[in-house]
Amino acid sequence: MDQISQLKRRPKLAGDDEPAYLGGAPSFDQTLAFNQPTLSSFASIRPAIEKIIDSGQLTNGQNVKDFEAKATDYFGRPTVAVASCTSGLILMAKVLGLTGHVIVPSFTFFATTHALLWNNLKPRFVDIDTDSWTIDPEAVEKGIDSSVSAILAVDIGGNPSEKDALEEISKRHGIKLITDAAHAFGSVYKDKLVGGFGDAEVFSLSPTKLVVAGEGGLVTLSDPEVAEELKVARDYGNSGDYNCQFVGLNARMTEINAVIGMANMEQVSEFVARRNEIAEAYRINLKHLPGLTWQTVAADNICAYKDISVLIEAVEFGMDRDLLGEALEAEGIGTRKYYSPPAHEQKAYGDKVSIAGKLINTDRVSQNVLSLPVFSHMKNEDIDRVCQAIIRIYKYRDEISGRAERNARG
Given a cut of 60, is residue 28 above it in pLDDT? Predict the structure, then answer.
């Protein structure tokens, strides 16, 4: 008898075996957070922070320069520290002189699109690949016309986009290629670290990411001259003589953020390896359940797994994504619907955006995706408890669906 048959035929048990949604004991007494930052010890960074405080040099100091040098060595090309990934994206659109339309996926965090609108650019949404959930190069090609100045790809969840294809398209059309690589610190595309592709790749160092600086971002660039221009742009457009060359932003990383980021960066390889172990554990423990489809990572790539997400096919699984999320919440397990609604449905944008072709895959993924808990110091026992909770919820899918219908009717 296979595992699914065993689940179906197993007699209903009372008490703790029932899901918390039906009144059973929750899997976690205290909520298991969807995400937690994995930080270096305070003892390891205290001397550097004390030195900063004693000096009074909170910005524009040596620690940011050291962090940039360390990141430049890591990524293999010029790297500039900024206050956030969002400010990095905003400023890259500025310094690269983008105009008109920019090709971008709708399946992304809204900051990606915000950065374009802050520059009075018009996002042109194209569809994602059905398996990787990253921007579809064929859709990109079809969306390009004379009004398009750039492609803004997204390495969703840390899964590298199709770098080779996107670089070829951008060069052939004479347009820029930027990547929102917020999730992809430590990801690898065909034996090369993400960060080394296109005109610029922009990383986030916020608390939900692998490498954390508190807040902050890093921008890797193909052109050293553009890197120097970005350094001016992040300081209002002031090159040092208080006679601004152009309208920039205050997007400087603080010295303390640089210290935290540098220390955290030392462990990035360990973090990526651990998150891949967690992703594999989820897949193995839940592989016998029907209706679960995982994001596909190409065999020659490495995903940093900022998020571990799964598509819930309601008919096969016995309930939809939203109800599974509610049932897991009752178990004390945090989840997210990344990204629902997708950017093209965000209220803030209205007629400020356009759509090239049908976003069939975008709609399918955004309507059915659920992101499960993952952080670099997550314990094996907690992974097992999350998986057991999902299995238990599946066993009682009919009862849970019935309860949800009765609740909806009031």
Answer: yes
Whole-Å CA distances, 19 to 284, 385, 396, 398, 400: 21, 12, 7, 12, 9
State which residues form the domain around 57: 42-265
The β-bridge partners of 188 are 193, 302
Rounded Cα distance, 245 and 174, in Å: 26
Per-residue pLDDT tens over the stretch 87-120:
999 999 999 999 999 999 999 999 999 999 999 9
Return the H-helix or E-strand segment holding 154: strand 148-154
Map residue 375 onto helix, strand or coil.
coil
Over the chain, what is the mean pLDDT? 95
Contact (CB, 8 A) for 18 and 24: yes
Determine the distance from the C-alpha atom of residue 51 to the mean position of all C-alpha atoms in its chain, rounded to a whole number: 33
pLDDT tens digits, 245-280: 899 999 999 999 999 999 999 999 999 999 999 999
Q: Give me the pLDDT at residue 410, please.
A: 81
The residues near 105 (Cβ < 8 Å, ≥ 6 apart) are 125, 126, 127, 128, 134, 135, 153, 154, 156, 343, 362
Last residue of a domain, one of 215, 236, 265: 265
CATH of the domain at 217: 3.40.640.10
Which of 212, 242, 265 delimits the end of a domain? Answer: 265
CATH label of the domain that carries residue 331: 3.90.1150.10
Tell me, yes or no, whether 96 and 241 share the same domain. yes
How many domains is the chain partitioned into structurally? 2
Q: Do 140 and 22 fall within a single domain?
A: no
CA distance 49 to 57: 11
Q: Are residues 202 and 285 in the same domain?
A: no
Q: Is 202 exposed, middle or buried (0-12, 13-18, 19+ CB in 10 A)?
A: buried
